[in-house]
């Protein structure tokens, strides 16, 4: 049975308006201090086509029409020259056929579908619970959260930041094995903000050498909900340069594993290159002792026909990946990394590329290609970005998956079922107002 979005999505626009006006009023009241603020309002629409043999056959296989609205308010208050306090508030209303089908499947088999169909971000395992669902039913979900809530101190020797924040390590452009903390998926085209985590970070400048960064991420255990060492992360990274080449050395204790990493960036003529490699030593409970991951990329910009072009090519290897994807879905080393959002693909070797053409300073086109070299199978992502005005931007794009039977992106049978695991092709349109 096909389910359509209810009228209450429209009715809840009033609730969003009240929240926005309240936050803007609060920000104005605090304007006496040295501060800055901004944000965006974004409307999204998408059409997708789940495969007839996918798990969605139990509900309906489409096409699925989905929409969402997102509001983000950013504030930063400065305290002379010794620090600043930063917050990001976001409210999201999302609904449509995909959400309705997921809720329908959860009712059919809560134990199987509840944790396997995705959902809104939650803070169940974070130190602070700063996410609240305002309203949720079979048609939509409306929730809000604090994605940034941090105090940064700036002594003469460096910086220290405590609270909910985001930090990115590594030199990967699409794949990034050195970025252990809420990395972007290689198919993410929206990379404005990483999901924030509760952490303590610091940066120490080392004279004539470089800089040293460290972080500590306390997390709660899934069963006890207490902050535990085996669920947390502690890491440090040294960055230094030799001539025009830069280097990174990282060590980390991440959940129960120990990780070492090295990275480097430099230039070859007018092209820039980057490389990262990590070696993960798994805990004693694992069936594998260790594995290596690495990424290498090169990008270059040029002019053809009086138009600006940019090109990127990237190779990625994951030593934990498998060629039998159904077995990978039950692997006790792979599953936790998929659930934590650290691993997004199942195979071992991938080649990715991107071409960017600036047709006009206000109108840009992109084509991203990601391929599993073992199948081959992959995803093609064309999109166009139009800066309609100084504050309004529109994005039109698509996700087109290709590959034969029993390939990662072409589709394979889920373990112990007759369902096909295959991401749906989709077309999307986003409109964003920045303020």
CA-based gyration radius: 23 Å
Instruction: Give the termini separation.
Output: 42 Å
Low-confidence stretches: 1-15, 28-32
- The geometry reads as globular
Structure class: mainly beta
Compute the number of strand runs. 21
Strand content: over 45%
Along the chain, the helix and strand elements come as: HHEEEHHEEEEEEEEEEEHHEEEEEEE
Average residue-wise pLDDT: 90
List the total number of helices: 6
Query: Roughly what percent helix?
Result: 10-25%
Key terms:
globular, 18-stranded antiparallel β-barrel, two-stranded antiparallel ribbon, mainly beta, 435 residues, disordered N terminus
Please give a structural write-up.
- This protein has helices at 8-11, 13-29, 97-108, 110-113, 325-328, 334-340, and strands at residues 35-49, 64-79, 83-96, 131-136, 140-153, 158-165, 197-206, 210-217, 233-242, 245-254, 257-268, 271-281, 290-304, 307-318, 349-360, 363-372, 377-387, 392-403, 412-413, 420-421, 425-434.
- By secondary structure, it is mostly beta strands.
- The strands form 2 sheets. It has an 18-stranded antiparallel β-barrel. A two-stranded antiparallel ribbon has the order 19-20.
- β4 (131-136) and β5 form a beta hairpin.
- It is globular and about 60 Å long.
